[in-house]
Amino acid sequence: MATKTAAPASSTKRKGGSSDKHPSEKYHKKAKTVSSKKKPEASDSSDSSDSGDDGGVELASKAHGAKTAQDPARPKPGFNAPGKPAEHGLNAKESHAKQKQLALERRNAKPLADEVQRTKKLWERLRRKSHVPKEERQQLVDELYGIISGRVKDFVLKHDAVRAVQTAIKYSTPDQRKAIAKELQGTYAQLAESRYAKFLIGKLLVQNDAEIRDIIVPEFYGKVRKLINHSEASWILDDIYRGVATKEQKAHLLREWYGPEFSLFRQADKSDVTGDLSAILAAEPSKRTIVLKYLCDMTNALIQKKLTGFTMLHDAMLQYFLNLHPGSEELKEFGEVVRQDENGDLLKNMAFTKSGARLVCLLLAHGSAKDRKNILKIFKDTFQPMCGDTHGHMIILAAYDLLDDTVLTAKTIFPEILGKNEEKDMENVTFLANDLNARITICYLFEGQSRSLFPASHANDLEILNEIHEIRKTTSKKDPEIRRKELVGAMSAHLLSAVASSANELVQTSFGCQFVTDVLLSTNGDKTSALAAVAATAAGDSKPATMVDTYLPAQPHISLTPHGGKMYRTLIAGGRFDKSAGAIKRIDPPLNFADVLYPIIKEHVLDWATGPSSFTVLALLEAPDFSSSNELLDILRSQKKSLKKAATEGAPKTEVAEEEEKPKSKAKRAKKGPPKPVGNQGTRLLLEKL
């Protein structure tokens, strides 16, 4: 049986040593008790025993496997600074003060310590632009440049000093910016890898200085593979590629995705450099297998790392896809890689870049019915931002033209872009009607590839549509016109309801009037409420509006706007002009909008006939289904004198308008041609009708 070992003579019995409480509870209790008192010396064991001050600490040390006897050569840790030992003879507060002093001394011993400290003070003052007078700000900037000039490289890699350099660039002159850019020459690839210095590159490039751009961008040549995989440098590299680099510089950067030789050897003739992989492989067909494998490996590496938001990646993926043979195993495998990305982040990111959106459209065109269905499901909850995006809206148009299952297309896309509940319907429809890109996603089903819907700025859209239409001939079974009519039928009720409830908001803009016209001419269903709502927008006095108050002019009456008059004339005619037939192509069943509109404007019809909307009144007389034409003719004949005055004189012009119309030289006078007839042309034609 083991005998009990006697305690050392210097030790004493602890109070509460036989307590059932856990040692850690005693430690916390003791810490709370003695935190405001001076810590007892380690050698004063007899006093501690009598008072019981350190009993809890001793037990806690034992519980953690520490020795019970305190080493006199090692100071005990203070309660207020656990883990940081206080010096012998000092309490926690004094120890912390001494540690702070040591940290300050170490910081001051570093190179440029005083200069960095001063730049931080200047930055603190300069960053509050509205609180610093212009003269004082200039003095501070001059002082800041005096500190950093010649030593910019020493400042930019310090996280607190680089902010001051960015502020200096913000308030700098072009010469000062160029001086900083030249001083940093040779270090930009290293700066791009820095967590803080990478923003300095953006500050230099955001000024759109061609000389600075040509200093910075070439320093990334030969380093694309390394930097695109770097957590910090990849984003600044892609920003440079997407928004700053010239066409030739982009080609140099993109070529590095095709193999090591394109990184090591660059074309001497910079004007002839190309990033088009088809042209490169056409010149050297033997390299096709090696180049495609290298490109595939680089793209797959980024996809596996979930780094799928880079524009450069999307451009490289498009080049790879375009050089695969249709129907090949390589193409099928590539499609699987894209579609099997977890959470669909790759496809969603691709939707918002030019090359990415085109690639998604091509994947839809070449894919099977199942592939198209799976791709469409990935974009769920993303269609609304896509429809307003410069590139994303093209994927919605491709879905309209390529998916044979129109029920799936309608259920997937329309609830998101049109609205899922009545409260948001008006907001969504107003956005669709007036946004330059979103309006295409609705009006395309009504107008097709019309010039009014696809202006010159959207020429790329037409190229993609023609490309997928050519592929569709071999991959789709449904007739395009049948597909279009089924989609129009699926959204007709929703659009007619939106026009009936929001007509006043929609007709305030030219895009809104075009949207209303398309809906009323091309949708199916009962249009009575919608026609009545649109006609009601013409109610009221059509004379020019006056100022509501000193600052805000009143909203002009719709009859005074060009887009309003055009909308009314088209609806009265009951169709659009067909160039091939040389006449109005009326819809069936007819709208009979003339009979709906006339009772509302009858009271002010003379103002319409002598104002900017005189052609609307003329359209009423020419409408074949207008039942009150004789009544209107009688009203106009009774006011023939007013019509003649408007036909010859027209509306008076302001002095500003007259000055603008005066030709300033004989050359301009000759170029302007013969003077236009004075007066209201529409009123003149009405008089001929009378």
UniProtKB/TrEMBL annotation:
<feature type="compositionally biased region" description="Low complexity">
    <location>
        <begin position="1"/>
        <end position="11"/>
    </location>
</feature>
<keyword id="KW-0677">Repeat</keyword>
<dbReference type="InterPro" id="IPR016024">
    <property type="entry name" value="ARM-type_fold"/>
</dbReference>
<feature type="compositionally biased region" description="Basic and acidic residues">
    <location>
        <begin position="17"/>
        <end position="26"/>
    </location>
</feature>
<dbReference type="GO" id="GO:0006417">
    <property type="term" value="P:regulation of translation"/>
</dbReference>
<dbReference type="InterPro" id="IPR040059">
    <property type="entry name" value="PUM3"/>
</dbReference>
<feature type="region of interest" description="Disordered">
    <location>
        <begin position="1"/>
        <end position="115"/>
    </location>
</feature>
<dbReference type="InterPro" id="IPR012959">
    <property type="entry name" value="CPL_dom"/>
</dbReference>
<protein>
    <submittedName>
        <fullName>Armadillo-type protein</fullName>
    </submittedName>
</protein>
<dbReference type="GO" id="GO:0003729">
    <property type="term" value="F:mRNA binding"/>
</dbReference>
<dbReference type="Pfam" id="PF08144">
    <property type="entry name" value="CPL"/>
</dbReference>
<feature type="compositionally biased region" description="Basic residues">
    <location>
        <begin position="665"/>
        <end position="674"/>
    </location>
</feature>
<dbReference type="InterPro" id="IPR001313">
    <property type="entry name" value="Pumilio_RNA-bd_rpt"/>
</dbReference>
<feature type="compositionally biased region" description="Basic residues">
    <location>
        <begin position="27"/>
        <end position="37"/>
    </location>
</feature>
<dbReference type="InterPro" id="IPR033133">
    <property type="entry name" value="PUM-HD"/>
</dbReference>
<feature type="region of interest" description="Disordered">
    <location>
        <begin position="643"/>
        <end position="690"/>
    </location>
</feature>
<feature type="compositionally biased region" description="Basic and acidic residues">
    <location>
        <begin position="85"/>
        <end position="115"/>
    </location>
</feature>
<feature type="domain" description="PUM-HD">
    <location>
        <begin position="118"/>
        <end position="495"/>
    </location>
</feature>
<comment type="function">
    <text>RNA-binding nucleolar protein required for pre-rRNA processing. Involved in production of 18S rRNA and assembly of small ribosomal subunit.</text>
</comment>
<dbReference type="InterPro" id="IPR011989">
    <property type="entry name" value="ARM-like"/>
</dbReference>
<dbReference type="GO" id="GO:0005730">
    <property type="term" value="C:nucleolus"/>
</dbReference>
<keyword id="KW-0694">RNA-binding</keyword>
